[in-house]
Specification:
Shape of chain A: globular
Number of domains of chain A: 2
Number of strands of chain B: 0
Strand content of chain B: under 5%
Order of helices and strands of chain B: HHHHH
Number of helices of chain A: 12
Largest sheet of chain B: none
Shape of chain B: extended
Structural class of chain A: mainly alpha
Oligomer: heterodimer
Helix content of chain A: over 70%
Number of domains of chain B: 2
Radius of gyration of chain B: 20 Å
Number of helices of chain B: 5
Largest interface: A-B, 115 and 78 residues
Strand content of chain A: under 5%
Structural class of chain B: mainly alpha
Chain lengths: ~240, ~120
């Protein structure tokens, strides 16, 4: 038993263990999601994160120790963001025709994402640090963390709020817009991408190639715009 | 495949360097995405290995968000005190943003007479 314990103590400090556990947790969560008929609340990211948090707490492992292993997966966010150019390019012919509707819809959606979070959060009495951390929630993780840092929020809290926003968009996005009478996959995709970044985009790709591409487009454009809007909102509001 | 992966990394690197040097408010990978998009437009087609590499990376995009998500473990106390208003704000604001984007895009497609055509 003490031999096992020694092996555990050794492994618990190794990047290999937490990298493996992260991939396994996602794999298992994804299997569960498929087995449950893609039940939205069993979103693989949500289930895997919850399981990993429970595991870290029960084994007394520090997040830093965990991240030393998981960072290899985390790092791939960069190349994956660059890779989004490929599905975008396949939809480029739409961009040439639709730059005006897409641009104005982006502006409206982006301003709503930041402005409504500020207004509702302030009305509900959220402390300033929480409020500021919430503002970049509709943007992909690496961008949102950068913005949060810039305006005095908590980047790692922002990362989690970004994930929750993404899951929200992935879960309610398409059904909500369908219920409101939207038939066009590309229009729904763009709206989900603007409001719910990469996780919304991943879900939109399962819906259709066009929805996914427009979602990626909305996500990319909104990343750049929100980086300008959040500091402006913070300055206007005097946070 | 390895060439495609190298290309993605090089573009991310160029993006990171440019945002640092020029002090741009956009993150490096997003600039890298813009550069690759421009390069594909100029080239007029996406090379097959690049298309495959990007499909491979994007097929399990969800996995890549997990390490950052587990970061909530460091904020459990702070979030515990205000989790309800935080969650209500997040849900309402996200739903509003989607509806506003969708309706604006729908209305402008009607106005300009140009639709996504999907």
């Amino acid at each position: 038993m003490s031999e096992l314990f020694r092996v555990w103590v050794y492994l618990a400090e190794q990047p290999l263990l937490w990298l493996t556990v992260t991939v396994l947790a996602y794999w298992a969560a994804h299997r569960l999601y498929l087995a449950a008929g893609e039940f939205p609340l069993l979103n693989p990211v949500l289930v895997a994160v919850a399981a990993l948090v429970a595991l870290l707490l029960s084994t007394g492992t520090r997040y830093q120790t965990y991240f030393d292993g998981a960072q290899f997966v985390h790092f791939l966010l960069g190349p994956a963001t660059v890779a989004l150019a490929v599905p975008l390019y396949r939809q480029a012919h739409h961009l040439r025709r639709l730059w005006l509707p897409l641009g104005l819809a982006l502006l409206a959606g982006s301003a709503t994402a930041v402005g409504s979070a500020l207004a509702i959060g302030w009305l509900l009495g959220l402390p300033p640090a929480m409020l500021v951390s919430l503002l970049p929630k509709s943007v992909t993780t690496p961008i949102a963390m950068g913005i949060a840092e810039q305006v005095g929020g908590l980047p790692s809290l922002t990362a989690v709020l970004v994930i929750l926003t993404g899951i929200t968009g992935a879960v309610i996005g398409v059904p909500l817009l369908r219920a409101l009478g939207e038939r066009d996959p590309a229009t729904k995709g763009f709206a989900v991408g603007v409001a719910a970044h990469g996780i919304g985009t991943a879900r939109a790709f399962q819906h259709s190639e066009a929805a996914g591409a427009f979602a990626g487009l909305g996500m990319g454009l909104n990343g750049a715009l929100t980086a300008l809007l959040v500091p402006l909102a913070v300055w206007l509001f005097g946070l | 495949m390895i060439g495609a992966l190298a290309a993605l990394l090089v573009l991310q690197l160029i993006g990171e360097v440019l945002t640092r040097v020029l002090g741009l408010p956009v993150p490096g990978p997003v600039l890298g995405m813009a550069l690759l998009f421009a390069a594909l437009l100029v080239r007029g087609s996406a090379p097959k290995p690049l298309a495959e590499a990007s499909r491979g990376l994007l097929a399990h995009l969800s996995l890549l968000f997990i390490p950052a998500g587990v970061g909530i473990v460091t904020h459990l106390e702070a979030v515990g005190a205000v989790w309800l208003p935080l969650l209500v704000t997040l849900l309402a604001s996200t739903a509003l943003a989607m509806v506003v984007t969708c309706f604006t895009l729908r209305a402008l497609q009607r106005l300009t007479g140009r639709s996504t055509g999907t």
